């Protein structure tokens, strides 16, 4: 029999919109937390995007409808806060403050409540629109992505929203563990700048601005990029000399034995590697290099990746979804479907 989840007994309230906030609380719900999704009359806006979208970030939750602009709604919120460990909200800062969703406003009901504000630029950073793609543009991510002669580009998924959801979940748990209530402030801008760690450090300390290379090549390691093969693209990531020695032997390449030499002679190295890789397919090279411990992978589509990893797919109600990425010995999450709007109006708010 599976153990209880590591977060069993933890109650978290969510006033979430679209992706970042709901993703954060879903991860916590997958780990056993009781997550109560507080929705406005008519439901949270992501319900309008589509059933599969809503299901993908709202499984394992409960739903109640509260009009937080009304006296009745605020009173009900206070009752829920009194019996909860945390509240996570992602809205504009002005809306968070206006609706009384901060620690200062809610501590009267529970001075140990942890209030997490997930915003674009910080709880005191103003209300400028802060959608995922806007943040990627504003923090330099788009400018450093793509081939040198092409326009800036964006990843094919919501990297800023998802990353900020992870950071918000971490901040929420850290403050619960501390045993103190308080305000946690997490912004999309700060998370994305934090994730540019070594890129930012290179500029701040050495004045080295990020430079784009063809095929997404790494700025330090050579060869570490995509390569066109006889059929498909291969991602090859040679980070140290032992990897290079094994790869060069398999590919029939001589010379360039040190990391420093490969970096200094980047174009020469890339030319000989590209010529070697063109003699076999991407999947052929993957099959040859992986047994040697060399980091490599043929570029796959998402459908291909999912077909090859059925173990990550779970069922929650009528939907097949990617399950929790956090695996804990002895605990197998129960995947319940995303709630119907206001489904748990009569069953929430009691003491845990």
Automatic annotation (TrEMBL):
Region annotation Disordered: where it falls in the sequence: 333-352
InterPro entries: CoA-transferase_III_domain, CoA-Trfase_fam_III, CoA-Trfase_III_dom3_sf, CoA-Trfase_III_dom_1_sf
Keywords on record: Transferase
Molecular function in Gene Ontology: CoA-transferase activity
Protein name (database record): CoA transferase
Segment forming the signal sequence: none
Organism: Mycolicibacterium moriokaense
Skewed-composition ranges (Basic and acidic residues): 333-345
Superkingdom, taxonomy of origin: Bacteria
């Amino acid at each position: 029999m599976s153990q209880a989840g590591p977060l069993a007994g933890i109650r978290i309230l969510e006033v979430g919109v679209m992706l970042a906030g709901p993703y954060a609380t879903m991860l916590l719900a997958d780990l056993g937390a009781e997550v109560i999704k507080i929705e406005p009359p008519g439901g949270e806006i992501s319900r309008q995007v589509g059933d599969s979208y809503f299901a993908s970030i709202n499984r394992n939750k409960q739903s109640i409808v509260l009009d937080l602009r009304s006296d009745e709604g605020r009173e009900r919120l206070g009752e829920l806060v009194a019996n909860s460990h945390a509240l996570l909200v992602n809205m504009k800062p002005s809306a968070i403050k206006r609706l009384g969703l901060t620690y200062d406003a809610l501590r009267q009901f529970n001075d140990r409540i942890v209030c997490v504000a997930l915003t674009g630029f910080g709880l005191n950073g103003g209300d400028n629109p802060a959608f995922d793609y806007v943040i990627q543009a504003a923090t330099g991510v788009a400018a450093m992505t793509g081939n040198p002669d092409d326009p800036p580009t964006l990843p094919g998924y919501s990297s800023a929203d998802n990353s900020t959801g992870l950071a918000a979940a971490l901040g929420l748990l850290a403050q619960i563990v501390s045993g103190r209530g308080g305000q946690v402030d997490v912004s999309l801008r700060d998370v994305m700048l934090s994730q540019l760690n070594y890129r930012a450090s290179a500029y701040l300390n050495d004045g080295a601005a990020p430079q784009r290379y063809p095929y997404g090549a790494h700025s330090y390691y050579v060869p570490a990029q995509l390569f066109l093969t006889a059929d498909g693209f291969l991602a090859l990531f040679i980070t140290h000399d032992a990897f290079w020695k094994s790869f060069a032997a398999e590919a029939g390449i001589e010379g360039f034995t040190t990391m420093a030499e490969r970096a200094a002679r980047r174009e020469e190295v890339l030319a000989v590697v590209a010529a070697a890789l063109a003699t076999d397919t991407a999947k052929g090279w993957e099959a040859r290099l992986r047994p040697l411990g060399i980091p490599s992978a043929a570029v796959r589509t998402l459908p291909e990746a999912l077909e090859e990893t059925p173990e990550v797919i779970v069922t929650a109600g009528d939907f097949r979804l990617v399950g929790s990425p956090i695996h804990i010995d002895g605990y197998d999450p129960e995947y319940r479907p995303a709630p119907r709007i206001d489904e748990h109006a009569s069953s929430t708010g009691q003491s845990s």
